[in-house]
Amino acid sequence: MKNYIFYLFLFLMIFFFACEEESSPTKIGTDPNIEEIKMRDKWNSASTILNKVEVKVTDPQGFSNISGVFMEVINQSNNQVVFSDSLYDDGAHYFTQDGDVIANDGIYSNQFSSVQILSGAGDGDYDFSFQAFDKDNHQSSLTEQSALFGPNIRPEIVNVSAPDTLFSGTNDQIFEISVTDNDGNDDIVRVYFESQKDGSQTQVFEMDLFNTGNFNDHGDLFADDSIYTMKLDSTFAASKIGQYTFHFYVEDSFNELNSNVHAPNIFIVNKPGIIKDTGVPATTSRPADLQLTLDANDPQGLTDIDSVYFLLEKPDGTFGGNGFKFDLQDNGNSLYGDLTAGDGIYSKIVSISASNDPGKYFFHFYLRDHVDHLTGVVKDSMLVN
Q: Left if phi > 0, otherwise alpha if psi is -120 to 50, otherwise beta: which for 359?
């Protein structure tokens, strides 16, 4: 009997410890970890412009357990440290010049100029070395990223050729800018513009210009010269109307932009959309499920169309749903009876029940675009027996 009790006790103890081991959380480590580094790989050694350095850090105990990130810059030629500083995750609250955007999100930032880092050291290849620390005195492994410090001259825009007006429904119009870079045209990595509507500080859109020699797509005649172009048609004006300012930029391999920004004003004309045809059965009996269609177009393209809808006038002269707007869709959704998305045919399935009054129903169709033009009503009718 004593042996039985002993073995039963031993079994219960083994079972208890097995359950404890199974329920215990798996250890996931203690050290912070540097997951990503964002910084430019070429720095103009004579520049005093601040450049942001960002490091993404995680910690098994959460962002709040990270205490900071330390950075050193090391000259590859002699392995000497030429600069050191810290990165911060404070939303630029305590260190207003660090460039950090959101506090306590694990993104550590600071901003430095080339002159500040080199402090008299020469041009060449340097290693940026980063290490993260937490509040429990743990540290990440050293993580490095190399960068070249060297001389650079900013590219410049010599001339801009652009129309002063983009007319509604216009054919292709070519924008052309001439650029120069004393470091050679091969140093140019991107040419583009940003545009704002007058009176608004919000960037509306941006677009690249090309130097590919592809005339059909971009309007460019010769590749790899100093002239960059783009070709725009009326679809560019979708959702836009009025006076816009175009800011043109050239960016080189050092991520530096032209200092003199050309900013011509261009007026964008946007005309209303067009209801080309409606498809309503001439007559129907009750009950029935019917497909209604509307063929639409817009001088700025279909993307300028915001909504297509109808109001339903009943035989007694009142409007269904107290003037409710019944929408049609060009989304390829079978629930609307639409066959092909984006073909300009807007559709809707309408159910006629036995309780609906007989007589002639009138459909008042409307089209509204993204600049709030409302196309005048187009009527169609259907006799319900």
A: left
